[in-house]
Amino acid sequence: MIQLLQSPYLGPLSRNGAWAGGQANGLLLLAIWLCWAGTGWADNLEGKITEVVDGDTVVVTDAKSKTHRFRLLGADAPQKGQSFHSAAKRALTERYLNKPVTVEWLRSQVCEPGGKNCAQLARVLWKSEDLALRQINSGFAWHDKSQRREQSTSDRAMYQDAELVAQQRGRGLWANAAPTPPWEFGKDAPKPKKKSKKTKPGAAKR
């Protein structure tokens, strides 16, 4: 059995395959925290999720009513226009909207083309539950391996195992035999052709 099923970040697995919240062992949490000590964390933040942008991005409002946009480290959910985009967003919304969270954010940012809608890469926890890990395990996100260097060895292994479990059990987006990952989506889309201006026959040139 894959060790992921005992992860304190997801809680025990119920008979229907859903993860229930659980309290993590204090010593295990301390050990995991020490694994992260060498990474480039900028700061920790306590706040409440006040908006879910999509399946891997949330807005957190802190105690001073300042808003912060965070991208879930290690997760990449379907983009708008892809299957399960709405389902991935809904999964985060129904479980975490208006819930208090702890955010461990990095100095790194991710932005949309043109430098728009930038978000800070972060590990977001509700109680002891890792939002990114749950999204991956539920089949609502891929493990974003382009960010693996930002993850601890233990978290990287858990995320990889979570993706494998979701794929094997056909959860969420893995109900499709070969779902297109977000980083491949739109690559093969035909580019719009530029309209050429045609001169009408007999039109005088100025």
How does this structure look, described?
By secondary structure, the protein is an alpha+beta fold. Helix content is 22%, strand content 27%. It has a five-stranded mixed beta barrel. α3 packs parallel to α4 (153-168). The chain is globular, with a radius of gyration of 21 Å.
Short recap of the structure:
This protein has four helices and eight strands. The protein is α+β, with helices and mostly antiparallel strands. The longest helix is centred in the C-terminal third of the chain and has 16 residues, at 153-168.
Enumerate how many helices there are, as a single number.
Answer: 4
Shape call? globular
DSSP strand count: 8
**Helices and strands, in N-to-C order?**
HEEEEHEEEHEH
Supply the helix-strand structural class.
alpha+beta
Fraction of residues in helices? 10-25%
Strand-residue proportion: 25-35%
User: What spatial order of strands do you see in the largest sheet?
Assistant: 1-2-3-6-5
Spans of at least 5 consecutive residues with low confidence = 1-9, 11-39
Main sheet characteristics: 5 strands, mixed, barrel
User: End-to-end span in angstroms?
Assistant: 79 Å
